[in-house]
Here is the input.
Amino acid sequence: AQTGIHIESDLPISVYAHQYHQLRSEAALILPTPSLGQDYFVMSYFGYSNSNDEYPSEFLAVAVEDETVLTITPSARTLGGRSPGQSFSGTLDAGESYQVQAVAGNSFDLTGSRVQGDKPFALFGGARWTQVPTTCTARDNLYEQMYPVETWGKRFILMKNQRVNFDLVRIMAAEDGTQIFRDNSFLTTQNRGDYTTFNLTSSSMYIEASKGILVAQYNVGSGCNGLANRTGDPSMLLV
Here is the structure.
């Protein structure tokens, strides 16, 4: 689909995209073209389904150059019939996009999917409308632009949002044997595309890893966040 939007300016600018649909709202910082890469892992979340509707985990690639060949390896079964770990390829021209959605349901999550290109491209990850955590009421869409693997860091400071019981944190590795430490204590060892999820209950936290990691922080839904007025929908940001 020819859905890409190209923005240029004669002076430096900051760009973000904000989605609105009825009661849904989510935003993402947009990376400048020189910051784009050729190798990404997707950070998203589980889909959601009920008896009437299906809302999948998803990601979207956008080409910035003609004849960009993408190789996609999903981590979950897709609506297009691809199996986890089954790589497939496609070619996009500048401004064209390609969307991948998981089979809808609370147990399907495209986090850890790998998307590679022979030229730099943009990648966005999230979920159409879901609960965070999966057992918590209140739903919203999730939407963030992914960072290429070469920009991932090894040290992070996390701050919990005010007045809520907890935030949700996910940490994903790009290389096998990545050791992860939380507040200077060993947490886990992860392999390529693997991730770990935990609650952030303290006011702050220090994360360190032996190799580059991608860290996401999620606002949880009002059914779990502890606010007396039961407000707040899920949202997602990359740290």
Notes: The chain has a mean pLDDT of 95. The two ends are 30 Å apart (CA to CA). The CA atoms of residues 49 and 105 lie 5 Å apart.
